[in-house]
TrEMBL record:
GO biological process annotation, one example: sodium ion transport
One protein family per Pfam: Aa_trans
Name this polypeptide is given: Sodium-coupled neutral amino acid symporter 2
Ranges in a coiled coil: none
Native source organism of the sequence: Hymenochirus boettgeri
Compartments in which it is found: Cell membrane
Region Disordered: start-end pairs: 1-47
Family stated for the protein in its record: Belongs to the amino acid/polyamine transporter 2 family.
GO MF, one annotated term: symporter activity
Membrane topology label: Multi-pass membrane protein
Protein backbone atom coordinates (compact mmCIF):
# COMPACT_ATOMS: atom_id res chain seq x y z
CA UNK A 1 0.00 0.00 0.00
CA UNK A 2 2.69 2.44 1.02
CA UNK A 3 5.60 1.11 -0.93
CA UNK A 4 7.88 3.53 -2.72
CA UNK A 5 6.60 2.54 -6.17
CA UNK A 6 3.06 3.59 -5.27
CA UNK A 7 3.55 7.10 -4.01
CA UNK A 8 7.20 7.63 -4.85
CA UNK A 9 8.32 9.88 -7.65
CA UNK A 10 8.25 8.61 -11.19
CA UNK A 11 11.55 8.38 -13.07
CA UNK A 12 10.55 10.92 -15.71
CA UNK A 13 9.78 13.47 -13.01
CA UNK A 14 13.09 13.04 -11.30
CA UNK A 15 15.35 12.90 -14.29
CA UNK A 16 14.21 16.27 -15.57
CA UNK A 17 16.74 16.12 -18.39
CA UNK A 18 15.16 19.05 -20.18
CA UNK A 19 14.92 21.17 -17.06
CA UNK A 20 17.55 23.63 -15.95
CA UNK A 21 17.55 21.99 -12.50
CA UNK A 22 17.33 18.36 -11.60
CA UNK A 23 14.65 17.61 -9.08
CA UNK A 24 16.51 14.47 -8.06
CA UNK A 25 19.46 16.01 -6.29
CA UNK A 26 20.54 19.47 -5.28
CA UNK A 27 24.19 18.59 -4.79
CA UNK A 28 26.59 20.73 -6.83
CA UNK A 29 30.10 19.63 -5.84
CA UNK A 30 31.71 21.36 -8.81
CA UNK A 31 30.73 24.77 -7.53
CA UNK A 32 32.35 26.46 -4.53
CA UNK A 33 30.21 27.25 -1.51
CA UNK A 34 29.65 30.94 -1.78
CA UNK A 35 27.08 33.36 -0.45
CA UNK A 36 25.39 35.74 -2.84
CA UNK A 37 25.29 39.11 -1.06
CA UNK A 38 22.36 40.43 -3.04
CA UNK A 39 20.12 37.41 -2.73
CA UNK A 40 16.64 38.29 -1.51
CA UNK A 41 16.73 35.20 0.72
CA UNK A 42 19.28 36.93 2.95
CA UNK A 43 16.53 39.10 4.36
CA UNK A 44 15.18 36.06 6.19
CA UNK A 45 17.72 34.71 8.71
CA UNK A 46 15.79 31.42 9.00
CA UNK A 47 16.12 30.67 5.28
CA UNK A 48 19.86 30.12 4.99
CA UNK A 49 19.71 26.79 3.16
CA UNK A 50 17.33 27.60 0.35
CA UNK A 51 17.00 25.69 -2.89
CA UNK A 52 17.56 27.06 -6.34
CA UNK A 53 14.76 28.67 -8.28
CA UNK A 54 14.63 27.76 -11.99
CA UNK A 55 15.63 31.31 -12.93
CA UNK A 56 18.81 30.93 -10.88
CA UNK A 57 20.14 27.91 -12.76
CA UNK A 58 22.88 29.91 -14.42
CA UNK A 59 23.96 31.35 -11.08
CA UNK A 60 24.65 28.17 -9.15
CA UNK A 61 28.09 29.46 -8.21
CA UNK A 62 26.41 32.33 -6.38
CA UNK A 63 24.24 30.00 -4.30
CA UNK A 64 24.97 28.80 -0.79
CA UNK A 65 24.43 25.04 -0.56
CA UNK A 66 24.82 23.22 2.74
CA UNK A 67 24.51 19.45 2.34
CA UNK A 68 22.37 17.49 4.78
CA UNK A 69 24.02 15.59 7.60
CA UNK A 70 21.19 13.37 8.91
CA UNK A 71 21.20 9.71 7.89
CA UNK A 72 18.28 7.98 6.20
CA UNK A 73 17.44 5.94 9.32
CA UNK A 74 17.51 8.93 11.65
CA UNK A 75 15.35 10.89 9.21
CA UNK A 76 12.78 8.08 9.35
CA UNK A 77 12.90 8.24 13.16
CA UNK A 78 12.51 12.04 13.15
CA UNK A 79 9.53 11.95 10.77
CA UNK A 80 7.90 9.17 12.79
CA UNK A 81 8.28 11.36 15.87
CA UNK A 82 6.62 14.20 13.98
CA UNK A 83 3.68 11.99 12.97
CA UNK A 84 2.90 10.21 16.22
CA UNK A 85 1.30 12.22 18.98
CA UNK A 86 -1.71 12.49 21.24
CA UNK A 87 -4.01 11.62 18.34
CA UNK A 88 -3.24 7.94 18.92
CA UNK A 89 -5.29 8.13 22.14
CA UNK A 90 -8.45 9.03 20.18
CA UNK A 91 -8.26 6.39 17.45
CA UNK A 92 -10.16 3.71 19.37
CA UNK A 93 -12.97 6.22 19.89
CA UNK A 94 -12.99 6.87 16.14
CA UNK A 95 -13.18 3.13 15.45
CA UNK A 96 -16.03 2.70 17.95
CA UNK A 97 -18.05 5.27 16.00
CA UNK A 98 -17.23 4.03 12.50
CA UNK A 99 -16.80 0.28 12.89
CA UNK A 100 -13.69 -1.76 12.12
CA UNK A 101 -14.12 -1.99 8.35
CA UNK A 102 -15.04 1.67 7.77
CA UNK A 103 -12.24 2.82 10.07
CA UNK A 104 -9.66 0.80 8.14
CA UNK A 105 -10.90 2.23 4.84
CA UNK A 106 -10.68 5.78 6.20
CA UNK A 107 -7.25 5.10 7.72
CA UNK A 108 -5.88 3.82 4.40
CA UNK A 109 -7.25 6.78 2.45
CA UNK A 110 -6.05 9.43 4.93
CA UNK A 111 -2.55 7.86 4.99
CA UNK A 112 -2.36 7.73 1.18
CA UNK A 113 -3.67 11.29 0.81
CA UNK A 114 -1.16 12.52 3.40
CA UNK A 115 1.68 10.88 1.47
CA UNK A 116 0.45 12.35 -1.78
CA UNK A 117 0.39 15.82 -0.24
CA UNK A 118 4.01 15.33 0.89
CA UNK A 119 4.88 14.45 -2.71
CA UNK A 120 3.25 17.71 -3.85
CA UNK A 121 4.98 19.66 -1.09
CA UNK A 122 8.45 18.35 -1.93
CA UNK A 123 8.02 19.02 -5.62
CA UNK A 124 6.73 22.52 -4.88
CA UNK A 125 9.72 23.20 -2.61
CA UNK A 126 12.08 22.16 -5.41
CA UNK A 127 10.38 24.40 -7.95
CA UNK A 128 9.62 27.26 -5.56
CA UNK A 129 13.15 27.47 -4.17
CA UNK A 130 12.32 27.41 -0.47
CA UNK A 131 12.22 24.89 2.36
CA UNK A 132 9.99 27.02 4.60
CA UNK A 133 6.23 26.52 4.59
CA UNK A 134 5.55 30.22 5.14
CA UNK A 135 7.95 31.25 2.36
CA UNK A 136 6.18 28.94 -0.09
CA UNK A 137 2.91 30.62 0.85
CA UNK A 138 4.49 34.04 0.29
CA UNK A 139 5.89 33.01 -3.10
CA UNK A 140 2.60 31.47 -4.22
CA UNK A 141 0.00 33.98 -3.05
CA UNK A 142 1.88 36.85 -1.41
CA UNK A 143 1.00 37.96 2.10
CA UNK A 144 -2.38 36.12 2.19
CA UNK A 145 -0.54 32.89 1.37
CA UNK A 146 2.00 33.49 4.11
CA UNK A 147 -0.77 34.26 6.61
CA UNK A 148 -2.68 31.11 5.59
CA UNK A 149 0.41 28.92 6.01
CA UNK A 150 1.47 30.56 9.27
CA UNK A 151 -2.08 30.48 10.65
CA UNK A 152 -2.55 26.81 9.80
CA UNK A 153 0.76 25.81 11.39
CA UNK A 154 -0.03 27.90 14.48
CA UNK A 155 -3.54 26.51 14.85
CA UNK A 156 -2.32 22.94 14.39
CA UNK A 157 0.34 23.40 17.07
CA UNK A 158 -2.16 25.03 19.45
CA UNK A 159 -4.38 21.98 18.93
CA UNK A 160 -1.43 19.71 19.72
CA UNK A 161 -0.66 21.74 22.86
CA UNK A 162 -4.29 21.58 23.94
CA UNK A 163 -4.39 17.82 23.50
CA UNK A 164 -1.23 17.45 25.61
CA UNK A 165 -2.67 19.60 28.40
CA UNK A 166 -5.93 17.66 28.20
CA UNK A 167 -3.94 14.54 28.99
CA UNK A 168 -2.54 16.33 32.05
CA UNK A 169 -6.07 17.35 33.01
CA UNK A 170 -7.46 13.83 32.65
CA UNK A 171 -4.61 11.67 33.87
CA UNK A 172 -2.76 13.58 36.61
CA UNK A 173 -5.68 13.40 39.09
CA UNK A 174 -5.83 9.62 38.58
CA UNK A 175 -2.08 9.26 39.10
CA UNK A 176 -2.26 11.29 42.33
CA UNK A 177 -5.17 9.16 43.56
CA UNK A 178 -3.31 5.94 42.79
CA UNK A 179 -0.03 7.04 44.36
CA UNK A 180 -1.65 8.50 47.50
CA UNK A 181 -4.32 5.77 47.73
CA UNK A 182 -7.11 8.33 47.98
CA UNK A 183 -10.75 7.30 47.67
CA UNK A 184 -12.34 10.69 48.37
CA UNK A 185 -12.59 12.94 45.32
CA UNK A 186 -13.27 16.20 47.11
CA UNK A 187 -9.72 17.54 47.51
CA UNK A 188 -8.78 20.60 45.46
CA UNK A 189 -5.60 18.96 44.21
CA UNK A 190 -7.69 16.35 42.39
CA UNK A 191 -9.32 19.03 40.25
CA UNK A 192 -7.90 18.74 36.74
CA UNK A 193 -8.37 22.44 35.97
CA UNK A 194 -6.24 23.47 38.94
CA UNK A 195 -3.59 20.90 38.09
CA UNK A 196 -3.31 22.10 34.47
CA UNK A 197 -2.82 25.67 35.66
CA UNK A 198 -0.18 24.62 38.21
CA UNK A 199 1.76 22.47 35.72
CA UNK A 200 1.60 25.27 33.14
CA UNK A 201 2.74 27.93 35.60
CA UNK A 202 5.49 26.10 37.49
CA UNK A 203 6.90 23.70 34.88
CA UNK A 204 5.92 24.52 31.31
CA UNK A 205 6.23 28.32 31.51
CA UNK A 206 9.84 28.44 32.81
CA UNK A 207 10.97 25.93 30.17
CA UNK A 208 9.11 27.82 27.45
CA UNK A 209 10.85 31.10 28.31
CA UNK A 210 14.24 29.72 27.26
CA UNK A 211 15.55 30.97 23.93
CA UNK A 212 17.21 27.64 23.11
CA UNK A 213 15.19 24.50 23.74
CA UNK A 214 17.67 22.18 22.04
CA UNK A 215 18.10 19.84 25.00
CA UNK A 216 14.35 19.26 25.15
CA UNK A 217 14.49 17.83 21.65
CA UNK A 218 15.36 14.48 23.19
CA UNK A 219 11.84 14.31 24.61
CA UNK A 220 10.46 13.69 21.13
CA UNK A 221 12.22 10.32 21.11
CA UNK A 222 11.06 9.69 24.67
CA UNK A 223 7.49 10.53 23.63
CA UNK A 224 7.65 7.97 20.80
CA UNK A 225 8.96 5.32 23.20
CA UNK A 226 6.11 6.13 25.60
CA UNK A 227 3.56 5.63 22.83
CA UNK A 228 5.15 2.30 21.87
CA UNK A 229 5.01 1.25 25.54
CA UNK A 230 1.38 2.39 25.66
CA UNK A 231 0.59 0.29 22.55
CA UNK A 232 2.22 -2.81 24.06
CA UNK A 233 0.18 -2.41 27.26
CA UNK A 234 -3.06 -1.90 25.29
CA UNK A 235 -2.47 -5.12 23.35
CA UNK A 236 -1.52 -7.02 26.51
CA UNK A 237 -4.53 -5.79 28.50
CA UNK A 238 -6.96 -6.77 25.77
CA UNK A 239 -6.47 -10.40 26.83
CA UNK A 240 -6.85 -9.63 30.55
CA UNK A 241 -9.85 -7.31 30.74
CA UNK A 242 -13.14 -9.24 30.51
CA UNK A 243 -16.17 -8.22 28.52
CA UNK A 244 -18.64 -6.97 29.62
CA UNK A 245 -16.52 -4.59 31.64
CA UNK A 246 -16.10 -4.97 35.38
CA UNK A 247 -16.77 -1.31 36.06
CA UNK A 248 -15.63 0.06 39.39
CA UNK A 249 -18.47 0.40 41.84
CA UNK A 250 -17.91 4.05 42.51
CA UNK A 251 -18.83 7.46 41.17
CA UNK A 252 -16.05 8.97 39.07
CA UNK A 253 -16.46 12.63 39.88
CA UNK A 254 -13.14 14.41 39.91
CA UNK A 255 -14.87 17.78 40.15
CA UNK A 256 -15.11 19.59 36.82
CA UNK A 257 -12.65 17.38 34.95
CA UNK A 258 -14.43 14.05 35.10
CA UNK A 259 -17.92 15.51 35.20
CA UNK A 260 -17.17 17.01 31.79
CA UNK A 261 -16.10 13.61 30.54
CA UNK A 262 -19.46 12.20 31.57
CA UNK A 263 -21.10 14.43 28.96
CA UNK A 264 -19.68 12.10 26.33
CA UNK A 265 -21.50 9.17 27.87
CA UNK A 266 -24.79 10.70 26.73
CA UNK A 267 -23.76 10.15 23.13
CA UNK A 268 -23.53 6.41 23.65
CA UNK A 269 -26.36 5.98 26.14
CA UNK A 270 -28.07 3.55 23.80
CA UNK A 271 -25.42 0.96 24.60
CA UNK A 272 -26.85 0.48 28.09
CA UNK A 273 -29.89 -1.14 26.53
CA UNK A 274 -27.78 -3.71 24.75
CA UNK A 275 -27.32 -7.22 26.05
CA UNK A 276 -23.90 -8.39 27.16
CA UNK A 277 -23.47 -10.37 23.95
CA UNK A 278 -24.27 -7.34 21.81
CA UNK A 279 -21.95 -5.12 23.81
CA UNK A 280 -19.05 -7.53 23.30
CA UNK A 281 -19.61 -8.07 19.60
CA UNK A 282 -17.41 -5.99 17.24
CA UNK A 283 -19.20 -3.89 14.64
CA UNK A 284 -17.80 -3.30 11.18
CA UNK A 285 -19.89 -0.36 9.98
CA UNK A 286 -21.28 2.22 12.42
CA UNK A 287 -23.02 5.50 11.67
CA UNK A 288 -24.05 7.86 14.47
CA UNK A 289 -23.71 11.48 15.49
CA UNK A 290 -20.06 10.92 16.48
CA UNK A 291 -18.99 9.34 13.18
CA UNK A 292 -18.29 12.83 11.81
CA UNK A 293 -15.29 13.14 14.15
CA UNK A 294 -13.49 10.15 12.59
CA UNK A 295 -11.96 11.88 9.56
CA UNK A 296 -10.78 14.97 11.51
CA UNK A 297 -9.24 12.72 14.18
CA UNK A 298 -7.42 10.65 11.54
CA UNK A 299 -6.27 13.76 9.68
CA UNK A 300 -5.02 15.31 12.93
CA UNK A 301 -3.13 12.10 13.71
CA UNK A 302 -1.21 12.10 10.40
CA UNK A 303 -0.26 15.77 10.22
CA UNK A 304 3.51 16.17 10.06
CA UNK A 305 3.80 18.49 7.06
CA UNK A 306 5.43 21.48 8.80
CA UNK A 307 8.25 19.10 9.82
CA UNK A 308 8.73 17.51 6.37
CA UNK A 309 10.70 20.37 4.81
CA UNK A 310 13.15 20.80 7.74
CA UNK A 311 13.76 17.02 7.76
CA UNK A 312 14.23 17.13 3.98
CA UNK A 313 16.71 19.96 4.38
CA UNK A 314 18.83 17.95 6.81
CA UNK A 315 18.66 14.64 4.88
CA UNK A 316 22.07 13.32 3.82
CA UNK A 317 22.25 12.79 0.05
CA UNK A 318 19.16 14.95 -0.30
CA UNK A 319 16.80 14.10 -3.15
CA UNK A 320 13.08 14.06 -3.56
CA UNK A 321 13.01 10.32 -4.21
CA UNK A 322 15.05 9.66 -1.06
CA UNK A 323 12.74 11.85 1.04
CA UNK A 324 9.67 10.09 -0.36
CA UNK A 325 11.21 6.78 0.72
CA UNK A 326 11.69 8.25 4.21
CA UNK A 327 8.03 9.31 4.18
CA UNK A 328 6.78 5.94 2.90
CA UNK A 329 8.58 3.99 5.63
CA UNK A 330 7.56 6.42 8.40
CA UNK A 331 3.92 6.45 7.35
CA UNK A 332 3.78 2.68 6.99
CA UNK A 333 5.22 2.22 10.50
CA UNK A 334 2.77 4.73 12.01
CA UNK A 335 -0.09 3.20 10.01
CA UNK A 336 0.58 -0.18 11.65
CA UNK A 337 0.96 1.43 15.08
CA UNK A 338 -2.27 3.42 14.72
CA UNK A 339 -4.21 0.42 13.46
CA UNK A 340 -3.08 -1.82 16.34
CA UNK A 341 -3.77 0.86 18.97
CA UNK A 342 -7.24 1.55 17.60
CA UNK A 343 -8.15 -2.11 17.09
CA UNK A 344 -7.05 -3.48 20.47
CA UNK A 345 -8.40 -0.46 22.35
CA UNK A 346 -11.77 -0.89 20.64
CA UNK A 347 -11.85 -4.68 21.15
CA UNK A 348 -11.22 -4.10 24.86
CA UNK A 349 -14.00 -1.55 25.52
CA UNK A 350 -16.16 -1.61 22.38
CA UNK A 351 -18.82 1.13 22.58
CA UNK A 352 -17.69 2.15 26.08
CA UNK A 353 -14.41 3.60 24.84
CA UNK A 354 -13.93 7.30 25.63
CA UNK A 355 -12.39 10.05 23.46
CA UNK A 356 -9.12 9.60 25.38
CA UNK A 357 -8.36 5.87 25.51
CA UNK A 358 -5.93 5.96 28.41
CA UNK A 359 -8.58 7.43 30.68
CA UNK A 360 -10.99 4.59 29.88
CA UNK A 361 -8.80 2.15 31.79
CA UNK A 362 -9.51 4.07 35.02
CA UNK A 363 -13.00 2.54 35.00
CA UNK A 364 -11.69 -1.03 35.07
CA UNK A 365 -11.35 -2.76 38.42
CA UNK A 366 -7.81 -3.92 39.05
CA UNK A 367 -6.30 -2.29 35.96
CA UNK A 368 -2.95 -2.67 37.69
CA UNK A 369 0.06 -0.58 38.60
CA UNK A 370 1.24 -0.84 35.01
CA UNK A 371 -1.24 1.87 33.99
CA UNK A 372 0.09 4.16 36.69
CA UNK A 373 3.52 3.73 35.08
CA UNK A 374 2.06 4.32 31.61
CA UNK A 375 0.28 7.45 32.79
CA UNK A 376 3.41 8.81 34.46
CA UNK A 377 5.47 8.20 31.32
CA UNK A 378 2.91 9.79 29.01
CA UNK A 379 2.38 12.72 31.39
CA UNK A 380 6.10 13.41 31.56
CA UNK A 381 6.48 13.11 27.80
CA UNK A 382 3.62 15.45 26.90
CA UNK A 383 4.53 17.99 29.58
CA UNK A 384 8.10 18.29 28.28
CA UNK A 385 6.84 18.40 24.70
CA UNK A 386 4.62 21.46 25.24
CA UNK A 387 7.59 23.93 25.35
CA UNK A 388 8.84 22.45 22.07
CA UNK A 389 5.41 23.00 20.49
CA UNK A 390 5.30 26.59 21.78
CA UNK A 391 8.59 27.37 20.03
CA UNK A 392 7.30 27.22 16.39
CA UNK A 393 4.09 29.04 17.34
CA UNK A 394 6.09 31.87 18.89
CA UNK A 395 8.47 31.95 15.93
CA UNK A 396 5.59 32.08 13.46
CA UNK A 397 3.85 34.92 15.32
CA UNK A 398 7.13 36.83 15.60
CA UNK A 399 7.86 36.40 11.89
CA UNK A 400 4.35 37.47 10.95
CA UNK A 401 4.04 40.59 13.10
CA UNK A 402 7.60 41.56 14.02
CA UNK A 403 9.60 40.48 10.98
CA UNK A 404 13.07 42.02 10.79
CA UNK A 405 13.07 43.36 14.34
CA UNK A 406 15.77 42.52 16.85
CA UNK A 407 15.09 40.02 19.61
CA UNK A 408 13.42 41.53 22.69
CA UNK A 409 12.90 39.67 25.92
CA UNK A 410 9.65 41.50 26.72
CA UNK A 411 8.16 40.45 23.38
CA UNK A 412 9.46 36.90 23.78
CA UNK A 413 7.91 36.54 27.24
CA UNK A 414 4.64 38.27 26.36
CA UNK A 415 3.98 36.06 23.33
CA UNK A 416 4.80 32.95 25.39
CA UNK A 417 2.41 34.00 28.16
CA UNK A 418 -0.40 34.74 25.71
CA UNK A 419 0.01 31.39 23.92
CA UNK A 420 0.03 29.41 27.15
CA UNK A 421 -2.87 31.40 28.65
CA UNK A 422 -5.01 30.93 25.53
CA UNK A 423 -4.32 27.19 25.47
CA UNK A 424 -5.22 26.83 29.15
CA UNK A 425 -8.52 28.62 28.55
CA UNK A 426 -9.30 26.15 25.75
CA UNK A 427 -8.45 23.15 27.92
CA UNK A 428 -10.51 24.36 30.88
CA UNK A 429 -13.64 25.44 29.02
CA UNK A 430 -13.88 23.13 25.98
CA UNK A 431 -15.83 20.06 27.19
CA UNK A 432 -13.78 17.16 25.80
CA UNK A 433 -10.59 16.40 23.93
CA UNK A 434 -12.78 15.08 21.12
CA UNK A 435 -13.84 18.64 20.28
CA UNK A 436 -10.22 19.79 19.99
CA UNK A 437 -9.31 16.84 17.75
CA UNK A 438 -12.42 17.41 15.66
CA UNK A 439 -12.10 21.17 15.18
CA UNK A 440 -8.33 21.26 14.57
CA UNK A 441 -8.49 18.18 12.36
CA UNK A 442 -11.26 19.68 10.24
CA UNK A 443 -9.62 23.10 9.92
CA UNK A 444 -5.84 23.40 10.32
CA UNK A 445 -5.02 19.74 9.61
CA UNK A 446 -7.17 19.76 6.47
CA UNK A 447 -5.37 22.93 5.33
CA UNK A 448 -1.92 21.41 5.92
CA UNK A 449 -2.69 18.00 4.42
CA UNK A 450 -5.04 18.79 1.54
CA UNK A 451 -5.42 22.44 0.62
CA UNK A 452 -2.08 24.24 0.99
CA UNK A 453 0.25 21.64 -0.63
CA UNK A 454 -2.02 21.30 -3.67
CA UNK A 455 -2.60 25.06 -3.96
CA UNK A 456 1.15 25.78 -3.72
CA UNK A 457 1.82 23.08 -6.31
CA UNK A 458 -0.71 24.45 -8.78
CA UNK A 459 0.66 27.97 -8.42
CA UNK A 460 4.43 27.43 -8.23
CA UNK A 461 5.15 24.43 -10.50
CA UNK A 462 5.27 26.22 -13.84
CA UNK A 463 6.77 23.54 -16.08
CA UNK A 464 3.53 21.52 -16.09
CA UNK A 465 0.48 22.81 -17.92
CA UNK A 466 -2.90 23.03 -16.24
CA UNK A 467 -4.07 20.21 -18.52
CA UNK A 468 -1.34 17.80 -17.38
CA UNK A 469 -2.22 14.74 -15.33
CA UNK A 470 -0.21 16.08 -12.38
CA UNK A 471 -2.00 19.42 -12.30
CA UNK A 472 -5.43 17.86 -12.76
CA UNK A 473 -4.65 15.48 -9.86
CA UNK A 474 -3.60 18.42 -7.69
CA UNK A 475 -6.78 20.32 -8.57
CA UNK A 476 -8.95 17.31 -7.67
CA UNK A 477 -6.99 16.94 -4.42
CA UNK A 478 -7.57 20.61 -3.63
CA UNK A 479 -11.30 20.32 -4.29
CA UNK A 480 -11.45 17.16 -2.14
CA UNK A 481 -9.70 18.99 0.69
CA UNK A 482 -12.17 21.87 0.55
CA UNK A 483 -15.09 19.44 0.59
CA UNK A 484 -13.59 17.54 3.55
CA UNK A 485 -12.92 20.73 5.52
CA UNK A 486 -16.28 22.41 4.85
CA UNK A 487 -18.26 19.19 5.28
CA UNK A 488 -16.52 18.16 8.52
CA UNK A 489 -16.75 21.63 10.05
CA UNK A 490 -20.44 21.90 9.15
CA UNK A 491 -21.31 18.52 10.67
CA UNK A 492 -19.24 19.20 13.80
CA UNK A 493 -20.95 22.56 14.33
CA UNK A 494 -24.35 20.90 13.83
CA UNK A 495 -23.40 18.30 16.48
CA UNK A 496 -22.33 21.08 18.89
CA UNK A 497 -25.62 22.94 18.35
CA UNK A 498 -27.62 19.74 18.81
CA UNK A 499 -25.82 18.93 22.07
CA UNK A 500 -26.31 22.50 23.33
CA UNK A 501 -30.02 22.30 22.49
CA UNK A 502 -30.34 18.93 24.22
CA UNK A 503 -28.75 20.32 27.40
CA UNK A 504 -31.12 23.28 27.27
CA UNK A 505 -34.03 20.90 27.53
Amino acid sequence: MMKGDVLGVSPDEDSASNSSISNEDFSYPEYPLKKHPNSHFDMDPENQNYLLEPSQAKKKSETEYLPGTTSFGMSVFNLSNAIVGSGILALSYAMANTGIALFMILLVFVAIFSLYSIHLLLKTANEGGSLLYEQLGLKAFGLPGKIAASGSVTLQNIGAMSSYLYIVKYELPLVIKALMDITDNGQWYLNGDYLVLMVSLFLILPLSMLRNLGYLGYTSGFSLLCMVFFLIVVIYKKFQIPCPLDIKAMEITLNATLSQLNQHNNTVAHTHNETSDEMCKPKYFVFNSQTVYAIPILTFSFVCHPSVLPIYQELKGRSRRRMMNVSNISFFAMFIMYLLAALFGYLTFFSNVEPELLHTYSKVSGAGIIFVVVRLAVLLAVTLTVPIVIFPIRSSITELFFSGKDFAWWRHCLITLLILAFTNVLVIFVPTIRDIFGFIGASAAAMLVFILPSAFYIKLVKKESMKSVQKIGAILFLVSGIIVMVGSMTLIIIDWVHNATSKGH
